[in-house]
Structure formats: C-alpha cells, structure tokens
Amino acid sequence: MSGLEVKLAGLTLANPVMLLSGCAGFGEELAGVEGFDFSQVGAICLKGTTLKPKEGNPPPRVAETPAGMLNAIGLQNPGARHVAEVIWPRIQHWPTRFIANIAGSTVEEYAEVARVFDATGVAAIEINISCPNVKEGGVAFGADPVMAARVVAGVRRATSKPIITKLSPNVTDIRVVARAVIEAGTDIISAVNTFMGMAVDWRCGRPILGNVQGGLSGAAIKPAALLQVWRVREVAAPLGIPIIGQGGIGTARDAVEFLMVGAMAVGVGTALFQSPLVAGEIVAGLKAYLQERGLDSPAQLTGTLQPHQT
Ligand SMILES: Cc1cc2nc3c(=O)[nH]c(=O)nc-3n(C[C@H](O)[C@H](O)[C@H](O)COP(=O)(O)O)c2cc1C
Asked: Within 13 Å and on the Cβ side, how many CA atoms surround 296?
C-alpha cells in the first residue's frame, strides 16, 4: 500500500494535494458541497488576507478564456483580525490542515499579518509576494529579489510557523527570486502564481476586466508553470527546500508531471470552480498511480524526470 503522507520542511500533510488560495474561500463554502470530504485534501490555503479589510477591484473581476480564466479580485478580504478571531474558530475543527495566505503593501504589514496568524492554529503561513509595494512606488515585491527577501525576513521574525513563499512567474528569471527568498529564510516555495494577462471586448473596444489587467490561471498555464517549477528546482533542491507545484492542475496526471519536475506537493486552484471534488479525485488517481508502479510515497516521484532520449 502506498502511503500518501508528505513532509515539507516542518509541514506534514496527509497527502500532497492542496486547495489553492483564492479558489476555496476560507473553506466554509466547501462544508455545504455534497460529497466534499475535508480529510481527503492535504491542506486548504485560505484566501489572501491583508491587515485591514479590502473591498477588492472594481467589477468585472473575472473573464473566461479558451483554456483558463483571468482574475483581478484585488485581494478582497475581511482583514486578518476578523479571519483569526471570527472565521478561524469556525473552521479549525475540520479534518485537514489550513494554511494562511498573507499579503501587504509594506514589509511591516506582512509581518503584522503573520503575527496575527501565528497566534492561530494554522499549519503554515504562505506569503503572496505578488502585491505592489506602496512605499517603493508600486513595484511588485515578487518582481524584485531584494524586496522579496525583505518581506520573507520580516515574516521570519514574526512567526515560528513554517513559511511558504509563493513566487510570481512574471519575472525574467524566477531562480534569482527563489534564491533570494531561500537565503532570507523561507522553508518552502510555492510555484507559481498567475501569469499577467488581459482580455478585450472587441465589440465595444474596451477591456473586459475592471482592473484592465489580471492573472491568468487554469489549463492554459500548465506548460508554463511546469517550466517555472523545473527552474525553481535547480535552486531549491540542492538546498533541500521543498516546492509546492501549481498552475493548471486538474487531473492526477497533471499532478504526477509536477512531482516529476521537482514538486513535493501540488495545488489545485481554477479546476475547483468546475468541480470542488476534483482534488479528491486527484488524490485517488495519484494513489492508484503509485500503487501501479510499486512506489511507497509521492516523494519517490519528486524530481524523477529523466533526460530526453535522443
Ligand atoms: C479567483 C482567484 C483568486 C486568487 N486569489 C489568490 C490569493 O488571494 N492569494 C494567492 O496567493 N493566490 C491567489 N490566486 C492564485 C492561485 O492560488 C493559484 O496560485 C493560481 O491560480 C494557479 O493555479 P491554478 O491554475 O490551479 O488556478 C487566485 C487565483 C484565482 C483564480
């Protein structure tokens, strides 16, 4: 029998499949979904949370594309204290692990949000560094290795929980940012967040999203996300830093591909909008795959990609 447990630095999960931030709310909606079983998913990443409540971007906030979706939610959330004091007590008993996903526009804000979640029972804190830094003039933290490292170092001082840093693919060389956040003390890397895009309504000649630009996710980004994980692994594997692979995963086959290129766990986001039960199906498919191949754990697949046969 294949065990599905994975150990990512200080974070142990019953299986390597997690629900991604922004695609599962704060988990509460799932309780009402027929057939959804919290114990079937390795972890649930909570919606991105800032210190103060945020209303998010003007609508429309999502647009469909032929093989994925664009979103520009703008981090709508009720604020860290509300999540910790009101929502957390309601969700904490469900039999999975919860991971906070934090955002801010200054290093101090990230650290403060991390401090709020440090006092809860979340299993880890995921830093979303795709937000603009207000003080430095709006450059995304994730696009600048120095600023990304400052955020991670600030959060490191604020919590003793495992830190996951979620990298943006919208950079020239993701390895440079990966190296910087590892040096700053991240325990785990998640790769990757959405790819920047836009959609145009050709009939009226206007952008579809209220925010004009948004993040592309879903099946369309899978090949691009695989390459980013492959690149991150080059930096992370020699230092023993585990990767949570994500971007367009919708089947067990997709999950296996991400593990092969170097991930130790995987995340499912956009596919949940088609079916919230897809993560459970991926777990079952992964288990069957491991058993067929006589493998004892998902970790035995991590980084097993072979050189191309020429
Ligand atoms: C509607 C929506 C909201 C999202 N909100 C967040 C967020 O709050 N924080 C974050 O780190 N990532 C957020 N993401 C990115 C996802 O967590 C995920 O990294 C990305 O969509 C790639 O995975 P996928 O192709 O499986 O969706 C969001 C994605 C979508 C589609």
From this structure: 0
Residue nearest to atom 29 of ligand 1 (CA): 22
Question: Within 13 Å of residue 205, how many CA atoms lie on the same side as its CB?
Answer: 0
Domain ranges of the chain: 6-55+74-195+217-300
pTM, whole model, 2 decimals? 0.98
- CA 103 and chain centroid, separation: 13
- Selected catalytic residue, list 23, 45, 131, 204: 131
The yes-or-no verdict on residue 202 having pLDDT over 60 is yes
- Ligand 1 neighbours, Cβ below 6 Å, are 20-23, 47-48, 69, 71, 73, 75, 101, 128, 166, 193-194, 217-218, 221, 246-249, 268-271
3-state secondary structure of 178: helix
Question: pLDDT tens-digit profile of 132-170?
Answer: 777 877 678 999 999 999 999 999 999 999 999 999 999
Structure tokens at 27: 């988990």
Q: How far is the CA of 292 from the centre of ligand 1 (A)?
A: 32
What pLDDT is attached to residue 137?
Answer: 72
Distance between first and last Cα of the chain = 35
Q: Whose CA is nearest to atom 10 of ligand 1?
A: 21
- For residue 207, what is the DSSP state? E
**What is the band of 99 on the pLDDT scale with cuts at 50, 70, 90?**
very high
Q: Where are the alpha helices (DSSP H) in 159-300?
A: 174-183, 222-236, 252-261, 271-274, 278-292
Region 234-239 average pLDDT: 98
Confidence grade of residue 2 (pLDDT, cut at 50, 70, 90)? low
- Which CATH architecture fits 6-55+74-195+217-300? Alpha-Beta Barrel (3.20)
> What pLDDT, on the 0 to 100 scale, is given for residue 216?
96
Lookup result for tokens 């804000």 = 109
Mean pLDDT over all residues of the chain?
96
Q: In what order do the strands lie in the sheet with 213-217?
A: 62-65, 68-71, 213-217, 195-198
